[in-house]
Amino acid sequence: MLIVVALIFAIALISPWIHRLFKEKSGWVLALLPLGSFVYLISWLPHIAAGNVVKESTTWVSMAMFHVNLAFYLDGLSLMFGLIITGIGTFIVLYGSGYLAGDANLPRFYCAVLLFMGSMLGVVLADNLISIFVFWELTSFTSFILIGYSHEQENSRKAALQALLVTGIGGLAMVAGLVLMGFASGHWEVTALLNEGDIIRDHPHYVAILILVLAGAFTKSAQFPFSFWLPGAMAAPTPVSAYLHSATMVKAGVYLLARLNPVLGSTEIWLLLVGGFGLATLLISAWLSISFTDMKQILAYSTVMALGTMMMLIGLGTELAMQGLAVYILSHAMYKGALFMVAGAVDHEAGTRDVMKLGGLRALMPISFAAAALAAISMAGIPPLYGFIAKEIVYEAALEAPLWPVLVITLAVIANIAIVAASAIVVIRPFLGKKVETPKKAHEAPLSMWVGPLTLAVLSVLLGVLPFLVDKALMVPVASSVYGAPLDFYLSLWHGINLPLILSLLTLAGGILVYRIWDGLRDSVPMRVYQTGFAQFPIKGYEGLLSGMLNLAGFQTRVFQNGLMANYLITILATLLIAVGYTFITRSGIFWDPSFENVLIQEWALTIGILASLGIMLAFGHSRLTMVIGAGIVGFGLALIYLMHGAADLAMTQVLVETLTVILVVLVLVHIPKISDVRGTTSRVRDVVVATGAGVMMTLLILAATAAPFDAFISGFYAEASYPLAHGRNIVNVILVDFRALDTMGEVVVVAIAGLAVYALIKMKRFGSNGNSKPRGAETSNTASKREKSS
Amino acid sequence: MKSLILHTATRLMIGILVLFSLFLFFRGHDEPGGGFIGGLVGAGAFTLYAIAFGTEATRKVLRISPITLISVGLLSLVVSGLIPMFVAEPFLTGKWLFIEWGAMETKLSTPLIFDIGVYLCVVGFIVTVIFSLEEE
Q1: Residue B107 pLDDT more than 90?
Q2: Chain B residues near residue A648 by CB distance under 8 angstroms
Q3: ipTM score of the complex?
Q4: Are A33 and A114 within 8 A, CB to CB?
């Protein structure tokens, strides 16, 4: 499994060159990769169906605190997700090659979509909590790139950022939960955790773990009120929406909770939170879906509804719910993938995907129509399609809900009525009825764009008629791994006349009724209010939070970074004086016991020389240049002191830094106006107090610090270990590049950022002041220089 | 700056300074020197050149943009840290390779790559700042 994931990543990175080699055929070539992975995964099917699991582990990071193994784990649940990811992935690569044909950025699409595929496969196959998190974040990251594919459009960038922030913040919460779980149980492998459910559930941190993990799962799987990012992400090209935002990535949260159900589940709080959020999400978003006329928005909200249904089933946690979850995930992946791809094909061929501007495409796009019709019938839950079986079993599970079954089934039926109407809208409006003039002259999509939807739609029929094809092989292992104990069941289309069937008929009738009054309903005031309240309001909340944060950052930047050097200095020194001075006095007390016996005559001379030159410079120097030279003398004097004590490295560095500093400062001085001291008496007094205070405190601090007995342990260790451990005799350098390389790395990064910042600020000053595109930093630096000039 | 003495001296000095900076760099693991000090001397050489002949000429002599130097330097730091992770050791663990040349021995190591990164970042940083200020 490691090989498969690694291979997908490797091929993703070279995919642009593969594209260059095969030109327009590249989609067919690259599709072989997910197809091959699909075949590899399906070859495990007999093994999994027999009730076995596959484990594989390679050590990745090994530290005293914890080990991270690149461990992979294949059971029913991960196999089904793996098959969906690679199976639909094959069609998406093909579909993308047709949808984005001729687009200059197509190679980037291939690269990002394959990277995503590798990451997503990693999420579902990984056995280690930390690896799951790493792959999880990689899916957020690749999703960001894919949503922002049309990066020259502002709404694409905004949608990409929105999705990244929402799922990213959730991901951070999740990792905290996973780490807590790891420490609570002492196990980092999911396989080991599955047997430790009781320890976790009885742990005092259980509620914290649960809430943190749920925060990750709910944001990723777009549960209300975080659902707004998913419809926003429809700014992505359709192959991306079909793949990430319907079939795979958004199900990562569902996967995680399904995977952890045996560990965290079957408690009351789990039932209330997971089931409750799922139920709320499915009800709210089902009706939102029919408040739009854009096919992708309708499908996006119906996807949110499906995710809500999956969450609700996980929350219920009964045997029936687990069966329902397995069947529902598979049937949803098939029909929703097909519908999304058809919606994209319609958009691509007819130039719009607004159902009000479409009609009568049946004759022009017969294959797409067939695929869409079958998929929509499955989504509406009409026999003999697989979606019908899924809906029946969901109703059965809802009827047997451990808490308030009447409420659960009522809400589920009300939500499904809207979904039936939505299914009708996305097929009947564009394909049937009178032919409508479309922006582009419509014709059938190319082979690469209909092979996927048609295959998926036909599979929905096939599995509906012959459900036993996958029950024992896949559905039973999936339900068993989510349930945490072996289950046995079979599926069939006909259960006799029972309550779920009657409810299905009721749903269907209700759906047809809603469809018939849809035109009036959509524009009615309650529907508008409903849409504003549940779709627009959460976005407003998100935007309000974001702009509030930016305003706060801007405010504190204006307060602290006011651009006046004198203010910076006085703030820094005063803070130092108060904070360090307070600690110093309370902790160690004033200390005055200097001993001058060991001070050599030349050291006295040097010190007095430095101090005297400094004093003369400050008292008589009125130009900045003199002051710079004065500071330079201090620096070179220090270098001499280092040299006297045998610190050649330090002395050399000090001399070089001092020289370069003088050059740099002189270059800056050219641009700075002459000194003109306009301070009043009050500020002079204040400056004197702060300066004297800081100086006295530093002196006392150094005296106290040097009076403490010197612990030679660390320096002794470095001196001894330097050669045997790091093969170097220069201890300073060995510390810099080996023993404490991480510190050096941080410092060098700071240096690099400072260099880039200087470059950017100076360039911006030269080309700057061109309207609004100017970042905040430029503004402050400009006003700062203005202020300095005026003072 | 137009000065015959400065021009002639700089022409003579620059080669020596760059060589000296490399000398300091390579001996740094056993004797005083290293990436930081070597980088400072190297940056000093190009600063001198920029003062004598202007930034345009220095860019030509340097051939590589100083910002590229910074980025390559940062990349070296990361690479030196990642190498040990491929043999399942923590980030930035020093890995060594000893090559015998008869009586001579060459030591290659990830701390060397790390030090190259430090050297390039220091040179890149100072030259970037000098260029930016000079060209303003």
Answers
A1: no
A2: 32
A3: 0.93
A4: yes
